[in-house]
Specification:
Blueprint: E1 14-17, H1 21-32, E2 37-41, H2 44-52, E3 56-59, H3 65-69, E4 78-81, H4 86-99, E5 104-108, H5 112-121, E6 125-127, H6 129-159, E7 164-168, H7 175-190, E8 194-199, H8 206-215, E9 220-221, E10 232-236, E11 255-258, E12 269-272, H9 279-289, H10 296-309, H11 319-328, H12 334-341, H13 347-358, E13 361-363, E14 366-373, H14 379-387, E15 395-402, E16 405-412, H15 419-427, E17 432-435, E18 439-445, H16 455-474
Helix pairs in contact: 4-5, 7-9, 7-10, 8-12, 9-10, 9-11, 10-11, 13-14, 15-16
The chain binds manganese (II) ion (MN).
Amino acid sequence: MAEEIPEGKFTHEYVVIGCGGTGFSVVRELVKRGKKVLAVDISKERVEVLRDENYDAIVGDARDESIYENLDFDRVSVILLLTSDVEVNKEAIEIIRRFSKEVFIIARAPSPKLKEELEHAGADFVVVPSEAIKNAVIDAIKRIDTFRKLKKFRKVLESAKGGKLGIFTHDNPDPDAISSAFALKEIAKRFGVEADIIYYGEILHQENRAMVNLLEIPLLRGDEVDLSQYTKFALVDCSAPGVNNSIPKDIKINIVIDHHPAENVEAEYVDIRTDVGAAATIMTEYLRELKIVPSRILATALFFGIKSETDEFKRNTRTADFYAAAYLYPFVDHEMIEKMEGPAISTETLDVLGTAIKNRQIYSSFLISFAGFINDRDALPQAADFLLRLEGISTVLVFGVIKDTVYLSARNKDVRINIGEVLRRAFGDVGSAGGHAHAAGGQIPLGIFGDVSDKDALSKLLTEAIKRRFLSALGVEIKE
Ligand SMILES: [Mn+2]
């Protein structure tokens, strides 16, 4: 055998020993990827076949030291032992390790049990074909699930052809809901189905408004649209009409795509995934599976949807969200994202902020402020967010009056306090209030505070009453 080995040392980066079915495919794949590969096999015929196909190949036994004597270990970086004989592989590992401690060894083992033996002998990585096949089968099953889902989805969309699809979001849609609806609209278009995005409530938050305006996403208000013109309906980012949304309860829904847990969802097509952080992540997967390359605008919308829903990948973010964001990334207009994240402050918000700053009252680490008689409810959380940044402050309550309602917005970063609970305790009996540990809100009818028409007197009265209830719910005593 030794006479088959030519003079001079081999400088190939990869050496594949054992070129049966698996080894041969590995050689072929590595060469295809531009690697320099030396193939070694005990069978003369096999080596001839390899040479016929222009691969560098020599005849040799994996346990024959002369092979390794002829390798330049400064250049060879990986040796793959792919013979099906585990004893041969094991012996070969021991021999190779006498020549080089550094060279990377990948070896094949017939079972998980023998894997350890080869690792022990000095292999860096052991491949077990039966495990690889098992994983491939599991992957195939997952793919089939997706495939079946998609087939159903296509069917529903195709049956909508010629008609019009109404896509509902939840009330006061956020970027996740808006971008998901937008994606569904674009997908429907590919199927020859015209679609409108319909919402109830308001597009609150300047970021959301900036998104809709900058990306020019067409949205229709539910109370201004004739629902009888639609032949099918879809819900995104929510799963039932009339539940936490103002969609008429008697509307028959055909498609539901959501990431919030839900039971007994009724629709022709339902895709609810609770293992993703955003509905926009699901929609991105639809684009990928349907091989629809997103436009710059759509990719930017979805990316912004995922980013904002997961609070910059900090909240309830799953692997799928990262994958979706990574997929969208090259299509995203990042300048646009920057503009959406730092939209101009409206004059009104600035005024509300000014009033809230001026009227602040501080009790240890709690800050309370009356932001005045306002028009834009959305300015309150912004003022609360801003005031929470004040040194020494951990909890903020800002409130303002719009028409005959007092709106409350609270923010908290003290881990011992659940501000949603505090607001419920403080104001639940006179209005509606609640939320999360770090953010909460509420509404109280102004009439509760008596019939006072003088604004100054009302301001004082309100501030006193709200302060008392709030601090008492927090367990703070007010010293007069
Ligand atoms: Mn969502």
